[in-house]
Request: fold
Amino acid sequence: MRIVQILLAATSLVTAAQLAAQAQMAAPAVLTVQVNKPIAPVPQHLFGLFFEDINFAADGGLYPELVKNKSFEIDSHLLGWKALKGAAELESYLVSSDRPISASKNHFLRLSTSKAGPDAGFVNEGFRGMGVKEGAEYTFSVMARRGPGSITGLNVQLEGPKGEPLAQAHITGLSGEWQKYTAVLRPTATAAKARLKLTVEGTGTADLDVVSLFPKDTWGKRENGLRPDLVQLLKDLKPGFLRFPGGCIVEGMTLDNRYQWKETIGDVAARQPMINRWNKEFRNRYTPDYYQSFGLGFFEYFQLAEDIGAEPLPILNVGMACQYNSAELAPIGTAKGLNAAGPADEPTLDTFIQDALDLIEFANGPASSRWGARRAAMGHPAPFKLKMIGIGNEQWGPQYLERYEPFARAVKAKYPTMQLVSSAGPSPNGELFDKATLKLRELKADFIDEHYYAKADWFRQNVGRYDNYPRTATKIFAGEYAAQSEGIARTENKNNWDCALSEAAFMTGLERNADVVAMASYAPLFAHVDAWQWTPNLIWFDNLNSYGTVNYYVQQLFGQNKGTAMLPVQLPNGAKNGTDNLFASAVADETAGEIVVKLVNYSPAPRAVQVSLAGAKKLGKTGRALVMASDDLNTQNSLQEPRKLTPQEVKFAVKGPAVSYTLAPNSFTVLRIPGRK
Ligand code: AHR
Reply:
């Protein structure tokens, strides 16, 4: 009897779902796109990227140096290095400051042994191991010098996780002076967790510094180039801009720990490392070995932006350390010590303003200018055409506004066309947000940076956020956002389809309001699977492989189908975007001669739609649909299944200006229909 009841119940459930589906199929939702009434041009940089060195995004990620702490300059000088144990013949080693390479680079490794042996040396562990590929080439280099004794050379060995040799080289001819030695290593096998072993030959003392192992296969085959699979993933997003270097890293835990662009340019070997502010931020994702080498510094950043066709958008410190940490403030003064409570040599706001002006000159100045000459000397005589900068990261309160104002004034005075990004703080609403917005609009700020990390449903519910924003000269930069499956920055958060689909829904609202929202970027961008602090992230990687999350492919569909002119789109009966979990936006792509309609069906049932192209003429016969769909809202890509859910292209017939299409359950669809008017 009970079994019969269950069967009946199950049958009626199926029937209800089928009926709902049939109902939706039977009566297509009619949407109207006003093809002949474009609202405004789509901003050139609408969808872009946010880069921050969090989750090992730079060292251990995009910046492919394999040696951790190559110069022994990190305050814990042997971090990443281990003396060989067991049959070690090493008598002593110390990090010495005796006649260093330079006054600023005054630590190096001094090895002494009186008995030659195969274990007289050190290993470097890399960044959670070193990823090396069979047959690929890696340039080993070291600064070395011979001390007392008869050290004849240096053995360089790449070995696998079990100690198996993968590649070796031999350095000879050490002299009593510091000299650079190089060798090329070609591993005989691929390994994700290799390590570098350096041992001395003979007895006596040898000094080692600036130890590097760098892949030859970099983006553009540059010597200090970036990891190519990761750059390719960025480029494939067709990003409009590249925000850098963050994020809270701009601010630092203290002002001393802030990001200082001048320390990140010039000779790579001379750049001083600094503790990464994410090192100890999250107790449950503690990464005490997290430092910044700045091998990927401001020059490499500008070059990357140029390579991927993105407008550079540097975010600069406004004289404020992270307000979640020390909240230290630089005094507002015109000279060191003036109006300042602190010591005479502490930086005042002027220091920060000058840094910004100098950065603009570094990017755009002629090669004859002071900072332009530094750029030219690094190999880029042509300007980088910097058009915008951000003043402060995620700052709030009166302390911010009173620093922003003179800062912005000084930049505009010298560079009137420079576009400035200001901050609305960490929260997208509330008193601080409202006050900042009001004041920044009053100051006619070019862009206000709004951040939202919230649960997936917030994104769907707030699709209309910008519908009633005032259309003033001040535009919005949605500078950091991501749907959080469990809660803000919770370690259990997942890059799942529910979050990505909700972001897609929200982004239809951004696209519909692109006359007020000029830029938007998902955050954070990168994460190492073995070394992350924050999740979710757009792209994940290990030492060898990488993949785009389902959120990544949503961003890609928007980036690649941005179009050139915003078109009005109406839901059935003039309903609000998102009614009945149907979301839509539309643009014209005047270059391709196509109408592009984006549709999100956040519902477990298929949905028939009829897209009525009002004012359309000369339509082609076949359209292309780019579809991401999954019945399971928990679907995720991974290193094992990197393309589990990606856009699939299908063709559909265009029989006239009323285009019929059936949206799959839980789907994001981009319809590209040939013909404009
Ligand atoms: O994206 C991670 C962090 O979130 C950023 O560093 C900060 O700006 C925001 O709070």
